[in-house]
Specification:
The structure is a single chain. It contains 4 helices and 6 strands. It is an alpha/beta fold. The chain has a single domain, classed as Transcription Regulator spoIIAA. α1 runs parallel beside α2. The N and C termini lie far apart (49 Å).
Length: 147
């Protein structure tokens, strides 16, 4: 794993076959203004240029982030989300809870109107990594019945 950059809001790393954007525990509403968002977008473009995105997956790891209950809070960070999703082969959001999965799935559906990227939501890190790397999931163990 190679750390590309970090700030109060995210830690961005390069791992085999993926770029991981891990949210910190800091609430978005206390952190970002438009200048901060522009700086984050610029930093991401520099550290993860479009030419390097087409053959890798992007994982937005939100397990440590506080849940955003107010949909209006999502509006200012839309440019950042669009930049983070642009150009990758596959996209996934990793959440910690079933409620988080429901919320992320709902937001992903709603945001589909604002971008062309399809985002799949996972609460299992191993499954997300398999998906992002384009690997086949492991077959479930076969059951042998003894009679």
């Amino acid at each position: 794993m190679e750390e590309l950059f970090r700030n109060d809001l995210v830690i961005v790393t390069r791992e085999p076959g993926i770029i991981r954007v891990r949210r910190t525990t800091l609430p978005v509403i206390q952190t970002l203004n438009s200048g901060d968002i522009d700086a984050l977008v610029s930093e991401f473009r520099i550290k993860v240029p479009l030419r390097e995105r087409k053959n890798v997956g992007m994982l937005l790891d939100t397990r440590d982030a506080p849940m955003v209950l107010d949909d209006a809070t999502m509006e200012p960070i839309r440019p950042l989300l669009n930049e983070v999703l642009m150009g990758f082969a596959r996209h996934a959001i990793l959440v910690k809870t079933a409620v988080g999965k429901l919320q992320a799935t709902r937001r992903s559906r709603e945001e589909a109107n604002h971008r062309s990227a399809t985002v799949t939501v996972f609460d299992d890190e191993a499954a997300a990594l398999v998906f992002l790397r384009g690997e086949e999931p492991a077959a479930p163990p076969s059951r042998s019945s003894k009679r």
